[in-house]
Amino acid sequence: MAKKKNRNAASRRAEHPNKTGAVAGVYPISTGEAELVPDGYHSDGWLLLINGVQSSHVIVGQPRMLDFEYMRWIVAVLDSHIQTHLNPEKLRITHLGGGACSLARYCADVYPNSRNTVVELDAKLAEHVRDWFDIPKSPRVKIRVGDAGTVTRSFAPESRDVVIRDVFAVDKTPVELTSVDFVRTVDHSLVPGGLYILNCGDDRALNAARAEAAALLEVFEYVSIVADSAMLKGRRRGNIILAGSHVPLPQLGSAEAASISRVLMGGGVPAQYWDTEKVRAFARKGA
């Protein structure tokens, strides 16, 4: 879920190291405006805001440093699945929603033989981020301009190992991308051992997360959830990460689930891992 603008960000516009083409300021893009702000904590860290809402964070030269907690949750699930079910030397990863390509930079660095396709709606933003940041060139990271739903429907069967959805219009994912039909479209593009990961932004009622969990369970045999305790208890709004696959995802009590949980609990915002059984119970509460 995109984060609301930090009002102190505007005060951090001092001189900033510029190893790529990044310069603090406001830039016109196809869908409004983008703002680049030095993060104030890292020597070459940048915060990207789209129409006043936090979209991405990048530390130039350090693609494995993910500042947004939900992105660290995504890669905890992703790395575990790749290790268990996929060939890390031949990965085809599609990122629906581009921003500053933070996750694509991570994947290209951790899995140097991977082929990452980033689908970004905003053509001007896609140009800017290439200029601003150290994004690997195609085919390691290819930025494809287009609507996420339209582009996904064009994918050939079994042409992706992983699809990651992180798409927001302001602070909500377009409804089209949350439907059972869209999940089936993604599934059609995945190899048999593939993985679909999505970032769901929700409020305290958790209606969106329950609906997304139910949609994944309609299509995939195995579904998992990652989020912090306060979010899962409906005490605040924020991010919930969901994943679906036709091959087993870690079951609570297993060594694999324990390994993921250790990673999740060690972050700045400790998070919980739920397996398919717990996800089914969570989804039923919204039925």
From TrEMBL:
Segments crossing the lipid bilayer: none
Q: Which InterPro entries match?
A: SAM-dependent_MTases_sf
Matches recorded under CDD domains = AdoMet_MTases (cd02440)
What are the entry keywords? Polyamine biosynthesis
- The yes or no answer to whether the keyword Magnesium is present is no
The domain of life for this entry's organism is: Bacteria
**Could you give a single Gene Ontology term from the biological process aspect?**
polyamine biosynthetic process
Q: Which PANTHER family does UniProt cross-reference here?
A: THERMOSPERMINE SYNTHASE ACAULIS5
Q: What is this protein called?
A: Spermidine synthase
From which source organism is this entry?
A: Rothia dentocariosa
Taxonomic lineage: Bacteria, Bacillati, Actinomycetota, Actinomycetes, Micrococcales
